[in-house]
Amino acid sequence: MDSVSCVLPDRLTKQPLLTQPNTPNDDSKRSISKWINIQLSRDYLLTEKYKYLPISLEGNDLFNALSDGVLLYHLVLKFYPEYPINFQPKYVQTSLFYKDENLTKLFAFLKRIIPTITLSPTNFSQTTTSTLTIVLGFLWQFIDKVFEKSLKRAIGSLNLSPNDYLIQWVNQTLKADGSNTKIFDFENSIMDSKAYIELLHHFISKTNIEVLRQSDLTLRAEEVVRSAATVNGTSFITVKDIITGNKTSNSRFVGDLFNIFTHPFISSEEETQKVTDHTLEKELDGIKDKETPNKVNLQQEIDKKKDELVTVQKEKKCKDIIDAVTKEHSNLDKEEKELADKEDMLQEMNDVLLQAKAKDIKEERENQKRLDDIKHETRGAELALKHSEEEAQHKQTITQNLIINKESEVASIERLQNYTNEEVQQMTLEVVQQNEELKKNIESLEKEKGETRKQVFQMEIHTEELSNQLKDENLRFERKRRELERQQEMAKESVKRKEALVSDVSKKIEEVTKATDLLISDVNEQKSDIVTKTDILIDEQDTNKQIRKDIKKGTTQNEKMLSEIVDLQTQDKTNIKNLNQAKIETNKVNKQIKITNAEKQLVIQERQQVESDAEAVLEKTEEVSQRVEEIDKNQLDAEIKYAQLEDKLVEEEKQRNAQLALLTAKLSGDRARQEKQGKREIDKITKEARRLKRDEKELSTKKQLLEEQLRVNESLKKDTESTLKDCEERIRMLNERKDQHEQSEKEFEVTMSKLQAQKKEINDKLTAINAERTKQKKELKKLETVKEIQKTLKEDKIEEKNISADLLEKERLRTERRKKERAERDAAIEKVTRRSKEKSQAATQETPQDISESQNPTILALKEKQRKRDEERKRREVERAKK
């Protein structure tokens, strides 16, 4: 075949070579030329009459043979008989005008087979080095489409790609032959040629299987090429391709072997029909050369009479078809009205959803403003707490000063032991007054304690209410989860229904395709109508594919909803944990609450303000959750309506498919008589299909809007959850501050206990002083008796012999001690008078506490330290404000 070339004069002209030898383009040119020679070797017109074949493997013979489109025309007739071509090419044309005419008509038809075709007629009629790769690429694409068609018929309902099916076919044939070898791809698994040799030996007994004993891979590959050449299967393979593991060439080689050994394309009947057609055409050509013009005229008259008879039969059948079409038009009008009503309902739903979106956006803005206000209030509360802490420190210093004053008072009391009885009584009265004041302070503190306990009890009640509210929210979340699960089940059921409908539609499509194939073989005059209807069926297949994609999208959306439900459950668990922690903390706080100061009222008021803010936030969150529930309900209603609409559309599609089946059954027997009316009906059906497609697109857009609303609602839920978390963190901070205040209260209690202990010590000392006073009174009485005795003795001038010396010494010591005590008392009285004067002068300007502080140097030092701390604190606050 390589030495023989075509006898066309156009192809005998010497031209510069378009492909250089030993290049990839030259190899592809050779393999395509081989394949065309093999596939069209039985065509009488191409081999004997017009001498298009065989194509030479050398030079530019392939491109010259393809320049007028005749070879492509015959390839399409062979491999795609179900797509009839409505024109007859002009053979053996040398002018570019007729070549381009053939190619333009052929390319318009080839777009049905290869929609991505981007060729122009000049690429084939005038092939150059720049357009060479485009032509070869198109030819390879056509060959791959031919292989895909044969493999799709063989694959059937199996979910396999063409390469996977070819690998499975090779492995099954080898297994049936008793071999253990398997291939997994067309690269590494076939480089040793073992699988190819065993496969060819299974179909061709002359294959030398003993070559496998040799380790030389080239010898094995040469044996594969030799044995495949016996069945014309070496179009796409070379020794180099096998050894290097070229994936594309090996897959094409195995596909070619599959077509050769299984014969899926052309049956024996079709071949005989084609041979008879060629012979008839040959005979007709001879007869036409011998016929006279009179016979031609007679033939024309006969054709006219036949046409008249056909028109009469058509008119009779057209009446029946018109009646059926009018009924179908009425049904279609009803369906159009129903679809218009559905569109109105969907528009109303969209308006409602848009209004809900606008309300949600307004509420989100209001919530954000409220949250900002709450943040400002919390900052103010934090500053107030800082001020209260500073005041507590100031009061601690005051208590220390009081302790110091008490110590000084104790020291003064110790000094006053030597005072007179009247002065001591005055001091005791002052101490009693101070004790009464302390008792009053203690009673006021106890009252405050009772009030704080009442407030704590109210706080416990409030926390219980909050816990109940959170339980209610958890119950609502569980209800929502159940509703979502029900929706998921409904969606799964709808998906199953859609899958069943898709399977039914695919079965109907297969039945229609079979019917159309049978009709095409019988009737050649109705090829144009059948082509249009097959195009409609292809469009239906595309719609079915889109439906499957929509089903997959629905399943992914259901999976997303499941993941969202799991997230909600986890959030509920975290909320429950936070509640338990809050309860534990409240219990701890209730256990640790004890006596508080008068300053605690300010802290309680601030806390009440913060709690009222938190309650407001919780109420806002409850309102937001209620709105989210309302939106979810509206969304559920919309989804239910959408599912109902989908079910109605599916039922309408079933009815339409049934109507199409009836129409095809009616038209199958009388297609020749119903050409014009069939076209009209097909146009109407195409319009309806387009209308359905538009409806499906509108529904998909509405579905996307609903999904966006779901996302917005989810964002609202997340925002509310974040606000709840912020409130919980604020409560935690308040609890920590409460603990700090309680610690300060404990310290104050310790100081109070110390003061009470000191008070007890003072009371004990006072009791001791009183006891000593009683003793002194007794001794004074004794001394007075002794003095009276001495006076009597002096008056009587009696000697002091009878008086004991001890008594005299004691009396002398007592007199000296009394002198000292009198001197000390005089000094103390002067001090007291001086102090009373100073107090009377400073009463208008200072309090008694300030007087004691001004007199005590330790208090002055503490005040100075406190002043320095205040200055440092102010300086730090200024620095923070600047930052």
Automatic annotation (TrEMBL):
Residues 26-147, 160-262 form the Calponin-homology (CH) domain. It comes from the Eukaryota. SUPFAM superfamilies: Calponin-homology domain, CH-domain (SSF47576). Residues 800-883 are annotated as: Disordered. Residues 800-814, 821-840, 862-883 have a biased composition (Basic and acidic residues). InterPro entries: CH_dom (IPR001715), CH_dom_sf (IPR036872), Fimbrin/Plastin (IPR039959). GO terms for molecular function: actin filament binding. It holds the Pfam family CH. Keywords: Actin-binding, Coiled coil, Repeat. Residues 295-359, 428-501 form a coiled coil. The keyword Ligase does not apply. The keyword Transmembrane helix does not apply. One of its GO terms (cellular component) is actin filament bundle. PROSITE patterns: CH (PS50021). Residues 841-858 have a biased composition (Polar residues). One of its GO terms (biological process) is actin filament bundle assembly. This is Calponin-homology (CH) domain-containing protein. It comes from Entamoeba invadens IP1.
